[in-house]
Amino acid sequence: MSITVVGSVAYDTIETPAGRRERCLGGAATYFSLSASFFTDVRVIAVVGDDFGPEQQSVFAARNIDTRGIEHTTGKSFFWEGSYLENLNEARTHNTELNVFASFDPKIPGAYRDSEFLFLANIDPVLQRRVREAMPDVKLVAGDTMNYWINGHRPALLEVLKGLDILLINDTEARMLAGNNNLVQAARAVMALGPRFLVIKHGEYGATFFHGSGKGKTGEHTFRAPALPLEQVVDPTGAGDSFAGGFFGYLAAQPELTPGAFRRAMFYGSVMGSFACERFGTDRLQQLSRPEIDARFEVFRELTHLD
Amino acid sequence: MSITVVGSVAYDTIETPAGRRERCLGGAATYFSLSASFFTDVRVIAVVGDDFGPEQQSVFAARNIDTRGIEHTTGKSFFWEGSYLENLNEARTHNTELNVFASFDPKIPGAYRDSEFLFLANIDPVLQRRVREAMPDVKLVAGDTMNYWINGHRPALLEVLKGLDILLINDTEARMLAGNNNLVQAARAVMALGPRFLVIKHGEYGATFFHGSGKGKTGEHTFRAPALPLEQVVDPTGAGDSFAGGFFGYLAAQPELTPGAFRRAMFYGSVMGSFACERFGTDRLQQLSRPEIDARFEVFRELTHLD
User: Fold this and answer.
1) ipTM score assigned to the predicted complex
2) CB-based contact (8 Å) between B182 and chain A?
């Protein structure tokens, strides 16, 4: 089944201990769709400027990603500049230029309307809600957000959460959203705001899946996937979006959403996040193959299973 | 097979968001031996003062721990005061009084000399080495250390590392010891200093086991055990020592040290660490049963396994 994703397609200038890259293709919707494209059909809704040309277009085309929902307008594409020099787990933002994104009004192509899966990447919750409401018949809706919206746009974000089946956020965001430092209590509080399922990402330590209906003992309805211990993290940009793409892409390709499917989806999320970190920008995702992905899935099994 | 452990038996005053406890029984050797006692016979080498009486003695006796190697001397026992008010993952030390520990000269009872497993808890590396050399025939030696020894007593610590089969330390300690922020690279550097096996503990995110002979692909010879997502961490004091006790205690009880035995040992380590956090001091370890331990082991399996 196909996924429609709305989010940013952008240029990033990134500095890490491994080096510096100027204006490489980035944005949450880019990482998400490249990652998910290894599992299912993906359709993107975004806005780009004049600086988005055939070269960038070809990155999506090579993965058969539907870009009819990427609006081309006059001006410059969204631009972000950040570094990870002191801490590979947290970006330091040096510059953010919204550019054409400042007046983004998502338009959903008719051909996208039969998508059964919808992913609302990290953008203004007002826009997330607009897209959600324009696609009322989707089977499963997942989304992401960030500190900026949690702190400064809470009422709009709370409206979005009501319409989500799955929320994917990191530790800091979960604690901030819930106002609670204990992750288990924070997870419960966040799920009470709407999402039945919650994925909390722990950076280099993996991610935890919570299922809201769990009323049993500690550990029930909870699943923890590790991250791969990597010898070199070249660039962590987009790892979380790549995780979301692997997780949601795998789910969209399943005939049934069983508890086992969610567990395997967590592993595929971690697998895709690990690949994203291996080179700058989307380089590794562009050169990846499904056999490589499945081989790494087995490495994750070996890393975690007793027998 | 029995384990001999050398380390501190102490009094701790602890403050956490859950409350405050004055002078409860603590110390690395105490947590380690209580935890390991659920798996195998344990013998303790330590020193205590006049303030260590029948009540404290009975805590060890109740778990059939051999305390003939606990030397009683004039003065006060080692005392530590700390809090975890801002961050449950890291203690803030308010006071440390070495007291009788300042002149500790470990004496190994004759009855301990047939122990096949030796654990060198976190104490002065000069003392760790002395005990190690006095027990040359042990089959497997594991040990712990901390920032204080890594920074200020490096040459003595390096001598200890040469005689260790297994080192158990946390992320910060591994990075500091290796002078490398990447955990995989740090693990390799630490193992080059002596230990064939390395356990790096990640606090609430679990722990990773590295095996030095691994020359294959990323992930081979590496095993990651999660920590249990706990609804309330009452007191994290001693969680790392309890992890070590479960890990090493389980190993000591196995007929053969297979790769599978190390994997299960990692789970038992995490299981014991999770129990230790549930109440203040050693309260939970004192009231624990083996069936509870094995039931939680199954919760860990459920938390991490695909099928």
Assistant:
1) 0.93
2) yes
